[in-house]
Fold this protein.
Amino acid sequence: MQRISLIAAMSENRVIGNHNHLPWHLPDDWKNFRKVTDGKAFLMGRKSYQAEDALVSDYRNIIVTSKEDLDLCSHCQRAENLPAAFEMLANEKEFFILGGGSIFEQTIDNANYLYLTIVHQTFSGDAFFPAINWNLWNKVKSVYHEADEQHAFAFSLNEYERKSI
């Protein structure tokens, strides 16, 4: 079965961004992101792709946008809509959905795995992770990271698997 993974970092009030930037800097979260996504395909919306701190895979990136003149990297492809993006990724054993908020909202029901960093703080923001029905998910891993000299906020690296119905 194909693994469709959403990967995000959110605050306790579900903020994932503010003015197309992350409201925090957590180096160990980035290390974890790079480790779990290495060599895998990414699906993201145009705003996430064009963000200053955008994350792109060295392998393959599908950018969902209706803009036909989008300047794409050499390992990036444009998909007109989400069904087209999922079709383009149909042969991938696993791919990661990177957001933003609207993409997460539209794909949460397709995902069968979540990599969700919880930043133990509340933030102001304009992009949010969708509300989750936790009855549909099992937590399979959680690693707590204290605030320290490199991390202004404590956070937890959580992984969830969708329950079989």
The two ends are 15 Å apart (CA to CA). The longest strand covers residues 3-11.
